[in-house]
Amino acid sequence: MNKTVILQGSSRSFGDTQKIVNSFALKSNFDIIDLNTKNIGHYDYEYKNAADDFMPLITDVITNYSTIIFATPVYWYTMSGIMKAFFDRISDVIRTEKDLGRQLRGKKMAMIRTSNGNDLVKGFNMPFVESAKYLGMQYLGDIHTWVEQEKIPEEVNNILDTFLATLKKTI
To answer: How much is the pLDDT for 1?
Structure first.
């Protein structure tokens, strides 16, 4: 299995992050899953959200994909709340579904962030890099993208093309 999925984690399914994700997916033929269309509750120690969409989603991702690309807008200098809830819920997999959680080892991870301008926030990628290490995943890198006046600037298209070429060498 050498399939790649982009997990889009924006509160707006049709916002700037989606513009970037769709452009990237058209170039790469990667699958897209919009986390905003899923019912994913927050992590809690009593697993009260066990019946939401998280476990079927993570099972599908772990079973069918070798590379996961997280795509998130920049909200208050960090990932979106939807993306953070998804990351927090990975705890469910490594605590209650350990055999499934162990299957994250050896998979690959990358990240695309989107904001309103070329204003990269230093350290933004740290939760992704450290989560990949903790889970035994290979971190392939990340890029910063932006949309101007509802359009993807040529500079960003070049960044996407370069990132895709780099990813294709490793996936």
So the answer is: 58
